[in-house]
Amino acid sequence: MYRYWTGTEWTAAITANPATTPPPTGPATQAPVPPAPQQPRKLGWWLGGTAAVVALLLVLWLVAQNIGSIVNGTPDPTTSPASNPTQNVCPALDPDQSTEPPPQRNDGRVHGGKISYPMLESPWGPVSGDNRVPFARDVAEQSVMVQENYDGAGASWVASVLVSELVAGDGFFSPKEGSEIVMRCVVGRFYGDAVVDRQDLVSKAMKVDGHDAWVVESQLSFDIPNLETKGELAIVVVVDTGVESASLYYASIPDTVPDLVDDARWVLDNLKVDA
Q1: Based on the domain organization, do 136 and 267 belong to the same domain?
Q2: Which residue in 93, 208, 221, 222 has the most C-beta neighbors within 10 A?
Q3: Within 10 A of 213 (CB to CB), how many other CB atoms are there?
Q4: What is the reported pTM?
């Protein structure tokens, strides 16, 4: 229904057809409102409009908060670190990203990003690349076969150590924040649909060749069909290697080959920042 505004007051009469001429009646009993052009107004319209504006502002605020948490790498407070993490900060796989390792120097070290480590000998294999590591480019990796074709479809499980340059997050997260983001994404990406229990053993600041860094070590437990190992040690180190860059060391050692843990720790102790 519609009521008419005379320019100074509301009429008492209402009508379903705002085009009709209002009858000469007295003002409504409600208090006057500021003057406006003489035109029919639908009762209750301003209430609905105000509610819609408030709802829209609330939605925009929530979206802004969500975007801010993604950009700043803020962990989801509703996600337990002992379960699969939220995936909202993890970059999608790029099928066009090269799986070749970056060019290596002839100095007996494995170089990736701006860090390097002494090349491991047998049973560790030759240097290879990888395009699955979240946020990483120029990945240089060594691995040891642990269980070949465990699923009957060609998938194999390996122990691995690698170094790389970080892509997303350069310049906007600290080594501590970066290490947590990468660990969460690794847990969410490398284990398919399996439920992964994560127990952090170490999370602390350290120095790598004089540069600020943060290390996170986590024991991961899972049950993947036909896979013999039910867990592994994961090590993530993010090194501050410049104003707008960071580098990554990542190791995963299945529980079925515990002797390789010493190699992963030896690599960590011998990381160097390239000149």
Answers
A1: yes
A2: 208
A3: 27
A4: 0.67
